[in-house]
Write a structure and sequence with these properties.
By secondary structure, the protein is α/β, with parallel strands linked by helices. About 45% of the residues lie in helices and about 20% in strands. It is globular, with a radius of gyration of 14 Å.
Length: about 150
């Protein structure tokens, strides 16, 4: 699964202002409503419920909030670069500034896991994260996320 299959340039936003984790999740839900026509309240609730199971801040300034959501028929992604990092209860206790959100159908077991693995592999790269942190241009961010499919495939 390639990121271009789950993420469109219209689903990339930067800079995004958020002052807390809860506010960031609300902003992401509002962005999902804008980008995909999903009900903001339901997306927010799904993301909050998933975070209650354990924080999705994976370290090094990256978070991958994700949730299964009955309002979608395929895995959808959103990417935001924050103007200022926020505490996201990440495993390394570092604040987060790069956030890739995944919304998957409730029945999308394998597809959800494949998408999560692809996002995780992509954002594990220090080179990719460095490039993402070098711009606030949504088109450039999209290009960085979707480039180099072959070398990120492993």
């Amino acid at each position: 699964m390639e990121l271009s299959e789950i993420l469109g340039v219209e689903a990339v936003r930067a800079p995004l202002k958020a002052t807390s984790k809860k506010r960031l999740l609300q902003e992401l839900a509002d962005f999902a409503a804008e980008a995909y026509g999903l009900p903001s309240d339901a997306v927010y609730k799904a993301l909050l419920e998933r975070e209650a199971l354990g924080p999705t801040g994976v370290g090094r300034g990256v978070a991958i909030p994700h949730a299964r959501f009955s309002g979608v028929d395929r895995v959808l992604g959103l990417f935001v670069r924050l103007d200022k990092p926020v505490d996201f209860e990440a495993i390394d206790r570092q604040p987060v500034d790069l956030v890739f959100t995944l919304l998957a159908p409730e029945t999308a077991g394998a597809d959800h896991l494949k998408a999560l693995a692809r996002v995780s592999r992509t954002l594990r790269s220090e080179t990719v994260c460095g490039k993402l942190r070098s711009t606030f241009d949504p088109s450039a961010l999209y290009a960085i996320l979707t480039e180099g499919k072959a070398e990120q495939a492993a």
